[in-house]
Design goal:
The structure holds two protein chains of two kinds. Chain A is built from ten helices and no strands. By secondary structure, chain A is an all-alpha fold. Chain A has a single domain, classed as Arc Repressor Mutant, subunit A, CATH 1.10.10. Chain B is mainly α. Helix content of chain B is 85%, strand content 0%. Chain B is elongated, with a radius of gyration of 40 Å. Classes of the chains: A mainly alpha, B mainly alpha.
């Protein structure tokens, strides 16, 4: 079944369609959140919250964008909320979600031999990091990112450019 | 790096990410500017140096099961709410009809019907039970 048909059926409370939609989108949302938060547990919690929100608001999805884009928007807003919440709880931390070093995070993010990449990503400021991840790993257009991040296209471009410069600098330092 | 180089680099970034096409002007600038050609080469290297494999969540099924349970819970809540609304509507209709009958002077007849229902129903109970047991035994015998 095509995505549009699945959404139509899910809006009519078809459990199979909803299950299929969630299964198809799970890796994208989880993958995006694990790169953004760099913490397995936080990524899983936010993924669950994202789908829960989607479940409650599926009737408001207008199908102007892809279903996964809509989910990424929800995930982005939840990530922003989470950062605000943690900042209120621990105001001394600059990058509270990403810098959390739980055992779970270490177990996967270090085991998988991409610790260097996650270290570099971790150093990017949250808003810029999200833009970089959306563009570099998920190939969203500037327009889509500006809608997801709720900021002008010019800001998206400058954030991405900043990220690239910071990453290049980090790479040069490591070399 | 001057201001115009920064502008060129942003354009190169657009080209790299498929937002615009390579122009002659950009190509000419790359030929003469070392900074920008390094930047351009660096963009290409990002693809390999920043590779981040997709991670599979080992708890995916648990999370999805929880979500589906939530969905089922939501559906049953909705169904309960719908049934409650239907019950309220039917009760209101019934009471309304009774009140209408009372005010139109049929109160005694209504009371008689009520009383007969309350008196006849318990009397019918043994018959109903007997019928149900016979039906059950019949079904078991066939099985």
């Amino acid at each position: 079944m095509k995505e549009a048909q699945l959404i139509k059926a899910a809006k009519k409370n078809d459990p199979k369609a909803l299950d299929q939609l969630f299964r198809d989108s799970y890796p994208i949302v989880y993958g995006y959140l694990i790169k953004t938060t760099l913490n397995e547990q936080t990524a899983r919690d936010l993924t669950q919250e994202t789908f829960l929100k989607a479940l409650n608001k599926i009737n408001s999805f207008n199908a102007q964008s892809k279903f996964s884009t809509w989910l990424i928007s929800i995930a982005t807003n939840l990530h922003k909320d989470e950062l605000r919440k943690r900042k209120r709880e621990r105001p001394e931390s600059d990058n509270p979600v990403a810098s959390s070093d739980s055992n779970v995070e270490k177990s996967v993010l270090e085991r998988e031999a991409f610790g260097k990449v996650s270290e570099i990503i971790k150093k990017l400021p949250d808003a810029k990091r999200r833009v970089f991840i959306l563009k570099h790993y998920y190939h969203y257009s500037y327009e889509e990112i500006s809608r997801i991040e709720n900021c002008p296209i010019g800001t998206v471009r400058s954030r991405l450019h900043d990220c690239i410069n910071k990453i290049r600098l980090e790479m040069e330092v490591e070399e | 790096m001057n201001k115009s180089c920064e502008m060129y680099q942003m354009e190169l970034m657009d080209v790299h990410y498929g937002e615009s096409k390579m122009t002659g002007e950009l190509r000419n600038h790359l030929d003469i500017c070392e900074d920008c050609s390094r930047y351009w080469a660096g963009l290409g290297e990002l693809e390999t140096s920043m590779a981040f494999p997709e991670l599979e969540d080992p708890f995916k099924e648990i999370v999805l099961d929880k979500l589906m349970a939530e969905r089922d819970n939501k559906t049953s809540l909705r169904r309960n709410a719908r049934e409650f609304a239907a019950f309220l509507l039917l009760a209101a209709l019934f009471l309304g009809t009774c009140l209408a009958l009372v005010f139109s002077g049929h109160a005694i007849a209504l009371s008689k019907i009520y009383l007969s229902i309350f008196m006849v129903s318990p009397l019918m109970l043994p018959f109903l039970i007997k019928r149900q047991t016979t039906k059950g035994a019949h079904t078991n015998g066939r099985a």
